[in-house]
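Hello,

Our lab assistant flagged a job as stuck in the queue for most of the afternoon. It eventually completed. Since we weren't sure the result was trustworthy after the delay, we are filing this so someone can double-check. Below is the sequence as submitted and the structure that was eventually returned. Let us know if re-running is recommended.
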Amino acid sequence: MKGITKRWVINTFGVIFIILFVLTIALAIVVQSFYYNGIFQVLNGRSSELVNIFSDYSNFTETARDYVENFPDKELMELMVIDSSGSVLITSTGFAPDNAQKMPDYEAAIAAGDEYADWHGALSSGENVMALTRVIYNNNGESVGAIRYVVSLEAADRKVFIAIVAVCVLGLLILFFIVVSSTYFLQSIVRPVRDISITAKKIAQGDFNARINKFYDDEIGDLCDTINYMAGELGTADKMKNDFISSVSHELRTPLTAIKGWAETMQLDNCRDPQTLEKGLSIIIKETERLNCIVEEVLDFSRIQQDRMVLIMDKIDILAELDESIYMQRDRANKENKHIVYEEPDILPAVIGDRNRLRQVFINIIDNALKYSDSGGVVTITVEQTEKNVIITIADHGCGIPAEHLPKVKQKFYKANQTVRGSGIGLAVADEIMKLHNGSLDIDSTENVGTTVTITLPLLEEEKPAESISDNGTDISSDSSADT
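-- returned structure --
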């Protein structure tokens, strides 16, 4: 035995066994006390009648003889007549008394000067008995003799033994049913736990299709469902990771192929065309920048995963950063016959943020909007101010995102459309950057209609003039205000 079964046997079965053992002993004591007390009450009741029988102290021996001869319960108990010197004169059995047999009850009554005393124990013959002696005193307080009642306890002990055996049998039956029911219950726990352990090892080894059979609709069943769900999520994450590796590999291979191809072309001895050289260098620079963006995106994601992304926070003009991001994407939009519509507000309050990281977010969202828009498509960018926030909305009329993919598009490695270039971590990085700015990035999309991304940033709160209270209780406000 090991594990849960061993702990149950030690903790539960051991405790139950001890409880039943103690209860058995206690019940045996109670039953024995009940029988012994009943016998004592009978003896005491019989001895109480001696007060009336021995009213004439002068003729104690004859009265005692008559009492013994006419005693109705001779078959149930033995009577012994003891004289004032402690010698046994008569017994109800008719046999000669054994004066060598000690009589502790008689000795106790005489020593204490009591009317009676009782005792139970074994005779020299080994028989277990209960004895009660009542001493007869005259008017002067002197002992004239005593009557001793002796009852065998063998019948009572036999009943006590039977009761103990019955209790033991009952206890064993209880233990048997406890063991049977508990064994079934333990199996209902141990077997699923064993299956969970085996399946968990398979999952740990990379078998994300392994599943646990659910036997019971309880906490163990909930655990099975949770582990099955975990396996499914791990399988999905593993697939997303593999897709990410494949996608990044493809993203890296494409610019590398272009760079290598144009470098080889420019290396040819007969390549002296200035236009060809200029075009090749332009493509090499462009593709190098693209490679750098991919690497930086992966590094940013790694920093976020390890909580090592550091923002350089400063008071910035959010419109200037948005303008710069739109300018960087407008040339690409024109080449792809796509249009960016943007009406710049006159002025906006400053915000606190990392200008490079916010520009990275804007470029990523505008890039996605252009990427998923068809030729001739329009990307609309609007900016509005609320009481505490600045809200930037970037909307396209492209292919949109299916409803089942929309809740997952900000998860790492997730790509709703595998046919379009991208690593699948751009939105995850952008969302984390917005969280670090105490802002938010929300995506609303309808398939075949378009996608709207809403970027919310908190405005910089202007510092208010300090206020104090003068000695006479009037408010004194500072004339100077803090720089913003």
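-- support follow-up --
The delay was a queue issue, not a problem with the job. The result is valid. The radius of gyration is 52 Å. Residues 463-484 have pLDDT under 50 and may be disordered.
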